[in-house]
Amino acid sequence: MQRIKKGDEVIVIAGRDKGRRGTVIRILDKDRVVVETVNMVKKHQKPNPNAGVPGGIIEKEMPLHASNVMLFNPATEKGDRIGIKTLEDGRRVRYFKSNSEVVDV
Fold first, then answer.
1. DSSP structural state of residue 4
2. Bridge partners, 79 (sequence order)
3. Domains along the chain with CATH numbers
């Protein structure tokens, strides 16, 4: 089970965007995540008339390593570590280590 999933709200804990919050847009491989409006770069893009892509300088999100983000805990208003436990009915769920609150319902 992955500790960070698509749609999670995370906070960046390392790098030039340290302290910024955003939502995970997608997961790449096992250890890379793309977070909305975090790690933005300018890319010089050539036009492609066949695909309808205009040229110019565009801004896009680049992936971050999963170790540089923490899941945001709304109860404590901080990033929090994640644990995985099995409930009585056999489901595996993620929980915050600081207050043992279950993330997945």
1. S
2. 72
3. 9-75 (2.30.30.30)
pLDDT value at 8 more than 90: yes
Query: How far is the CA of 11 from the CAs of 2, 23, 32, 85, in angstroms?
Result: 17, 9, 14, 23
Say if residues 18 and 12 touch (Cβ distance below 8 Å).
yes
For tokens 């790098």, what's the residue? 15
Beta-carbon contacts of 93 under 8 Å, excluding residues fewer than 6 positions away, are: 84, 85, 86, 87, 102, 103, 104
pLDDT in tens, 17-60: 999 999 999 999 989 999 999 999 999 999 999 999 999 999 99
CA distance linking residue 5 with residue 51, whole number of Å: 31
Location of structure tokens 């302290």: 19
Closest of 14, 77, 7, 17 to residue 41, by C-alpha: 17
pTM, rounded to two decimals: 0.86
